[in-house]
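WARN  no MSA supplied for this record, continuing single-sequence
INFO  ligand: magnesium ion
INFO  echoing inputs
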Amino acid sequence: MRTLYLRIVITTLVVMIFSSLLAFIISNAYYQSNLKPHNDKRITGMAHDIVTFYEKNQNVNIDAYLESIGKLGYQIYLVNEDNKGSFYGGEYRKKDLDTKIINSVIAGQEYHGIANFPSSAFITGFFDNVLTNTVGVPLVINDEPYAMFLRSDVEVQFGELRFFFALLLVVTSLLSIIFVTVSTRYLVKPITKLTEATKQITKGKYDIELQVNRSDEIGVLASNFSEMVRSIEQLEEMRQEFVSNVSHEIQTPLASIKGFAQMLQEKDLLEEQQRHYLSIIEDESQRLSQLSKQLLTLASLDKEQGILEKTTFDVAAQIKQIVTVTQWSWREKELALDLDLPTTNLTGDQKLLYQVWTNLLTNSIKYSNPGDSISIRVWSEDDYCCIEIEDTGVGISEEDIPHIFTRFYKGDKSRSRQDVRNSSGLGLAIVKKIIDLHNGKIEVSSQQRIGTTFKVTLPNM
Ligand SMILES: Nc1ncnc2c1ncn2[C@@H]1O[C@H](COP(=O)(O)OP(=O)(O)OP(=O)(O)O)[C@@H](O)[C@H]1O
Ligand SMILES: [Mg+2]
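INFO  complex generated
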């Protein structure tokens, strides 16, 4: 497996090698274009000085003289017309030089081998220790013409410096390799930790402590990751709670259906008893059917995208229709209905909104006492459509208010058994979901024993 660690180390090393190579080529090019003529000029000057000094001091032994100059860090080749020559100072690596050049220098011309040394990307002319890489000047010794070729002895002049730079280069490279190897571990460590953490999560362990105290990208990644783990954990808890709630809600009516069905099998039952048991079974089946309908609605709403089928319709007329459909239940409870429903056009999903008003109105009916009243108002405000359903019913306790939109939440445990039995606690969760999908909002204000008001505001677009 090629780990990230190995990748970073290899990449860094490749970059180091490549940049050294590039740096060499660039400095070589710089030598060729700028330093080479300068070097040639310097050596030419030196050659002239040697010649001038000798011409002024003819009595000096030329061999001893050139020998001592050679020791100072120069390589010299002295040659006469018969191509007989002698070397002073450091050895040349290549000693071949065209006789034409030698003859032309003897004849009095200067030779600029350093300035004209061929440029090549991978050879530094400066270090090339060959006879062609010299400066040649004429010299007369005892009336005989000679040619003298001269170049700096890099070995002598820069020997220590060269060693110093080579050492610098080697030590720098070695240290870089060591430091890259170590520091990459530090870089990669949090990623390894994250990978370890993802493995834990797949196993269902969420109590992960990621201690990455960094403010760079990896630090941000780690903190986002921790946040994600927390929300996955919450989601998982919600899922488990949801499943247990659903099971519970299904279990209760099923148990009661089973019980009454068993009782029906007993002999000697009065016809009246039989009818009573059957009606309970019917009620419970009705509840189950209602529950599964609500769950299906929630499931389809959870899919969210593209489920809204928007049309423009008169919301007041829609609410009037619901009032008519539910009239049996509010008339039975002797509730007074006060309606203020002027024609108001609303753009939204007609079917889903029908469910919103139905859920809100049935709640108001369910949680009101005989003789209470319900008022419904619809009006437009700027680009919004407002619907308010107010009742003078039992109200919601302060502790319950924050939870009423939660799935399966049924308020106030002191409520009559019948109400609790007929509830699944999904009504308002569905209402909230539908209103959220319409980008609207729902507000509730309530006081126990005084009444409840739900206000829905929907953008009319
Ligand atoms: N108009 C209201 N007056 C008083 N309490 C209310 C009113 N509307 C909702 N509630 C409280 O909020 C809780 C949640 O309401 P929701 O409609 O979600 O569930 P439900 O009515 O109990 O059951 P379901 O509507 O699924 O049959 C109710 O149990 C009730 O305690
Ligand atoms: Mg309800």
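The mean pLDDT is 89.
INFO  checksum written, moving to next record
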